[in-house]
Amino acid sequence: MVREADEKDLDEILKLYLYLHEKSIPADTEHLRNTWKNIINDLNHHLIVCEVDGKIVASCVCVVIPNLTRNVRPYAFVENVVTHVEHRKKGYATACLNFANDNTFNSSTSHKSLHLLSAYIISDVYRHEYLHAYTSAIWTQSYLRSGAFAGE
Q1: 25 near 15, Cβ under 8 Å?
Q2: pLDDT tens for residues 63-83?
Q3: Using CA atoms, how far apart are residues 120 and 22, in angstroms rounded to an integer?
Q4: H or E element in which residue 40 lies
Q5: Among candidates 76, 50, 48, 47, which has minimal Cα distance to 63?
Q6: Phi, psi values for residue 140, rounded to 5°
Q7: What is the pTM of this model?
Q8: 47/23: higher pLDDT
Q9: DSSP readout, 84-142?
Q10: Using CA atoms, how far apart are residues 58 and 9, in angstroms rounded to an integer?
Q11: Domain boundaries in the chain?
Q12: 135 band by pLDDT with thresholds 50, 70 and 90
C-alpha cells in the first residue's frame, strides 16, 4: 500500500534511510521531533511510503513549490528515493514515484514539472537501478532534469 507518511512513521523511515546514505539513526532530540512535525504539517511536503506486510519498505519525498511562472503552475522536486535492500526490484520505489506524480498536485494543475533534485549513487549498477525506477514510473526522461550523479 502506498500512502503519505504520518506521525507514527518516523522511526521506520529513519531505519529505512540507513539504506539511502545515512550511517546511523539521528538521536531522538527536540530538533528531530520539531523537524518531523514540520514535515508532516507542511501541505507542500509529501513524504510518501510503500508498506508491505505492515512495514515501510520504500519511500520518496516530493516537495511542491508554488510558482509565479508557467501560468502560475507549481513544480516539484523529488528526493530521498530509497527501497529496503531486501525489497528491491519489486516496483516499490516506482509505486512511490507514481503516487507522487498522481497525488501531490491539486486537481486544477494542468502542467506538472517534476525534477529529480540529486542522486547519491555508489556504483554503476545501483545508478542503473535508480534511473530505471524513475523511467519505469510514468515520467519520461525529459521530466527528470538531473545530472547530479556522483562522478558526473
Answers
A1: yes
A2: 988 889 888 888 888 889 999
A3: 11
A4: helix 30-41
A5: 76
A6: -105, 165
A7: 0.77
A8: 47
A9: -GGGTTSSHHHHHHHHHHHHSS-TT-----EEE--B---SHHHHHHHHHHHHHSS--GG
A10: 12
A11: 2-143
A12: low
Residue position matching grid coordinates 514515484: 97
> Domain 2-143: which CATH class?
alpha beta
- Cell numbers for 130: 535508480
- For residue 47 the three cell numbers come to 513524504
Strand ordering across the sheet containing 2-4: 2-4, 45-52, 55-65, 75-83, 114-116
Exposure class string for 141-152: b at 16+ Cβ within 10 A, else e: eebbeeeeeeee
Indicate the DSSP class of residue 24: S
Specify whether the CB–CB gap between 3 and 49 falls below 8 A.
Answer: yes
